[in-house]
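User: For my dataset I need records formatted as: sequence, then structure tokens, nothing else. Please produce one.
Assistant:
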Amino acid sequence: MLHKKSIFVIGFLLIYAFAKAQSDDAIIVNEETISTLKSQDPFDPLRPAKAAFYAATLPGLGQAYNKDYWKLPIVYGALGTGVFFAIDNDKEFKRFRNAFKDRLAGRIDEFTVVNEDGTTTETFTDDGLIDSQDFFRRRKELAILITAGMYVLQILEANVDAHLSQYNVSDDLTFAPDIHTDDLGQAFRYGFKLTYHID
């Protein structure tokens, strides 16, 4: 058991020394680091609001403002699909509604077949026409609701992406082993320490 503890402590100290050497090397500032800092765009607090405004004005414009041009086909594909299904279901709804109106007025509708002997055969009953109207009306409303949701979602996506695009990702994140003494028991405690420096 003592042998396993000593191997663990030696391994822990080696990791600590390696991490300490890594953090000491990070203090050195060279010309390349300074030029990288100068090349970063300045922080614009209104950038997320602008992206959301542009996306609300014209779908996809917020993504173009964030220079995420690859998202434009996704935005227009999602919105276009929703609009297509809304229009298609609206046509079907109007078709069954007009047939029902014709039947109520005593005219021959498109779902009534006139036989050679002058008799008529109804493809849909009156209740069938009413049920079909309700079915396509619900599908149209669902397609409109999903399209509106996609519209709001692309506004939120542009806003969040603009927030995250200005997030400073730096190397000031260290992960190192940590040894400290317990004040009550005077014993060593081993662990790992995660440090994040904000400049």
